[in-house]
Design brief:
Two copies of one chain form a homodimer. The first copy, chain A, is an alpha/beta fold and 305 residues long. Helices cover 36% and strands 24% of the residues of chain A. The first copy, chain A, contains eleven helices and 13 strands. In chain A, the strands form two sheets. The first copy, chain A, has a nine-stranded mixed sheet, sandwiched between helices. Chain A starts with a strand and ends in a 6-residue tail after the last helix. The model of chain A has no long low-confidence stretch (mean pLDDT 95).
């Protein structure tokens, strides 16, 4: 089953206590697609500017990601710059320049209007809605959002949430969206808005999930070295959706498969944060992924009852 | 196997967004002993002042905790007051009055100098050392400490750490003690100081452990309502040591038993934070504990390989 993702392709500039990089290829759709590409065919819908050259395109092409839906528009590519302190869970955004995303109106190529799975990465909820209206209902629609849209476009966001199966957001954003400090209560409120599956990203502390199969929580892998957390959440979503796409048989996606998919999301995120930018996702082998999945399983294994 | 704990017995005053309590019975040894008492016989070594009346003593007596080593000294009982905001992971200490702990010189009663397990709760490391020197080597010695002692008595703390098997501390304290931001690297540094087992408490995000069996991490239970986090860490340690005391056979304590003990620590901590003070620990039934242990196992269960 294939995955279609719509979201940003960007130039990121990051500073962390362990180094800095300027104008490297990033963006939510990029991290998502590179992570998911280890499991299935990925189609990207997004936009870049005239400054996005063949050498930048090559980053995505190397993993055989389908770029038919990546439009090149007049103007500049989306740029984001941020800084992390030693507490890598928090970051300061230094600058955001939307560039071609200011007027981006997504068009799904004819051949990709029946995706197996669809992920609406963090982007204007009106753009997410525009994508949703162009596709034949996929097996599962996942989406991400952020505080900026929760505050700035609450009505569009509500319309969107009523139509998605799964929402993947940060801990603090879940509480903000629900207006409720207790995560368990916030989850019930958010699920009543539409998504039957809520997945909460908790940075270095892992992830929690709420669906009809009951609560699920996993720690993150304990890594010796984390140099750049940028893209961790999008890699998590990409690993998760890619794994679902590869392993979901016909019918309902089981709670059991979803748990493994969340674990695989954590595995892909762990590779991302060990290097700057997307470097950690480019040269992974299936063996490295399997090994770390086994380590993840062992990490919180309690033994038999 | 019995557990001996040395630590504070106190009057706590707490304010949280969900209410407040004044001068309720608290202290590290109290929470530890109440949690451990659900699994084994517990002996408390500590001190209270003349203001600690029979009604306060009754809190500990109700769970058949042995109080022969709890001295009543001239002066006032240790008092602590603190405030929590909606982020229940952080707290402000408003006041600490040591009272009888200012000059406390622990004496282990004759009959308790060969404890099965010993826990040195957070207290002056010189007091922890004085206890250790009075006992015949237990099967396992665990201890806790805090930033105040890491900064104020580094040499005594180092002498202590060289003699303990297990250190149970907070995430930020582990990084501070090691002088290292990476938790994995910090764990290696701390284990080189003495304790072969390091257990890191992460509040609402669970716990991580480092021992010869490899890294282990668990999320915390997802609770609908947390009203007062005071004593969570001490209840965690009490549940953990109590479970070990009940289930450890002769010989080395296995990594597998340790994992279950950590899970049981998490279970006892979860009962503590749902009510003010020690209320949540007083009336638990074995069935309630077993049920929540099963829920904990289910929470992060990934299914078979």
């Amino acid at each position: 089953m294939s995955v279609l993702v719509v979201g940003s392709v960007a130039f990121d500039s990051v500073e962390t206590p362990f180094g800095a990089r300027r104008e490297i290829v990033g963006g939510a759709a990029t991290y998502f697609a590179l992570a998911a590409s280890h499991f299935t065919r990925v189609h990207v819908v997004g936009a870049v500017g005239e400054d996005f050259g063949p050498e930048h395109m090559a980053v995505l092409e190397r993993r055989s990601i389908d770029l038919e839906g990546l439009e090149r528009l007049p103007g500049k590519t989306f740029r984001w710059s941020g800084r992390y302190s030693y507490d890598l869970n928090a970051r300061d955004t230094l600058e955001t320049r939307l560039g071609v995303f200011e007027t981006f109106n997504p068009r799904i190529p004819e051949g990709h209007r029946s995706p197996g799975l669809l992920f609406l990465a963090n982007i204007d909820p009106d753009v997410q809605l525009a994508v949703l209206s162009q596709v034949k209902r996929p097996r599962l629609v996942g989406c991400d959002t952020m505080n900026f849209w929760i505050e700035g476009k609450p009505e569009s966001l509500r319309r969107l949430l009523a139509q998605v199966d799964m929402l993947v957001i940060n801990d603090s954003e879940a509480r903000q969206l629900a207006g409720e400090a207790s995560l368990v209560r916030a989850a019930a409120i958010i699920r009543a808005m539409g998504p039957r599956i809520l997945i909460v990203k908790r940075g270095e502390f892992g992830a929690a999930a709420f669906d009809n199969a009951g609560p699920f929580a996993v720690p993150a892998l304990l890594l010796e070295s984390v140099v750049d957390p940028t893209g961790a959440g999008d890699s998590f979503a990409g690993g998760l959706m890619g794994y679902l796409a590869r392993h979901a048989a016909a019918g309902e996606i089981s709670g059991r498969l979803m748990r493994r998919a969340i674990a695989m999301g954590s595995v892909l995120a762990s590779f991302t944060v060990e290097s700057f930018g997307v470097e950690g996702l480019l040269h992974l082998t299936p063996e490295q992924i399997d090994q770390r999945f086994a380590a993840f399983r062992e990490l919180s294994h309690l033994g038999d009852a």
